[in-house]
Specification:
301 residues, 33% strand, 8-stranded antiparallel β-sheet
């Protein structure tokens, strides 16, 4: 007992130093342990069958365009969502006020995904209504263009993560679409787990892949200092795996979008925070979630 007490004191005083090659234990870092969490879905089964979130706000995602199947390849437990392209999830705007990030609000969106489709512009989550020019913020993967923040000119991209913020709701002035977004350099391969995320602190839009800032020249970070568009009472719903598109005349009553876009693959978790997480927090979150899962898979398996 005396030995354990002495060891506890040494640890609490920070007198044990890590040896080369050792890393700090981050097993206690979870999406719910990081301050300013708005909501987090781990996509584990519940007694009610609802996709009820954890965090400061308890919100329920409703499945759209047919029931979404589950797979036993999860991050936060045995379960994850097997989303077929064209399926999506939604919370009505009035039912998720804390997710209505606007003005000088900050935001972080984190998703644990395994893509299984090849289409462009695989939307992950946010408040992003393109149909009615009510864009606010959103996380995407697999866009085919990336924007230089110094010129707002675009070049080709391929299966990379993107974090969007709009200050006007519609197209960027003097551009045909919204051009205010950061693009990470990483190519997101099919059938491989990634933790993709982005933050906005009104200085820059920053995309992270597997816990690290996914640096990409003038494309990430994307330096931007404008407010997040305020959609008002008729603004965007919060949606997952698809957003309202210009050629979607029946949205939201008609569940299936007419564009061949949207996310197709496995989603193991989704979190939204009310501030821009730090690089250290992002790294710890990855190591204790997806990184921990990957470390449990031995080379022989």
């Amino acid at each position: 007992m005396q030995l354990l007490a002495r060891l506890s004191l040494v640890v609490s005083l920070g007198l044990i130093h890590l040896l080369p090659g050792q890393s700090q234990d981050v097993s206690g870092t979870s999406p719910t342990s990081i301050p300013d969490l708005i909501t987090f879905w781990d996509f584990q089964p519940t007694n009610s069958g609802d996709h009820l979130s954890k965090g400061a706000a308890a919100y329920v995602l409703t499945e759209m365009n047919g029931p979404i199947q589950r797979t036993n390849d999860g991050i936060f437990g045995p379960s994850a969502l097997q989303i077929q392209r064209g399926q999506w999830l939604r919370i009505k705007r009035d039912d998720c006020p804390a997710l209505n990030r606007k003005g000088k609000d900050e935001v972080t969106v984190v998703a644990w995904i395994k893509r299984q489709s090849d289409n462009n512009w695989q939307y992950i989550a946010g408040m992003w209504n393109e149909r009615d020019a009510k864009r606010q913020y959103a996380l995407f993967s697999c866009g085919h263009k990336q924007t230089d923040y110094t010129t707002l000119n675009r070049i080709d991209a391929k299966n990379q993560p993107h974090g969007y913020v709009s200050d006007v709701g519609g197209a960027t002035p003097h551009r045909p679409y919204c051009f205010s977004y950061a693009t990470g350099k990483t190519t997101l391969n099919k059938d491989k787990w990634y933790m993709i995320a982005y933050t906005y602190d009104h200085k820059a839009i920053s995309v992270y892949t597997d816990g690290k800032l996914d640096q990409n020249g003038n494309y990430n970070p994307f330096y931007w200092d404008k407010p997040i568009f305020d959609g008002g009472d008729e603004g965007s719903d919060f949606t997952v795996a698809q957003r309202a598109l210009p050629a979607w005349p029946g949205y939201p009553e008609v569940e299936e979008p007419t564009h061949h876009e949207g996310f197709g693959g496995i989603m193991g978790g989704l979190a939204v925070y009310g501030r821009a997480l730090s690089a250290k927090e992002m790294q710890s979150l990855y190591e204790s979630t997806l990184g921990n899962k990957q470390n449990q898979i031995s080379p022989s398996s």
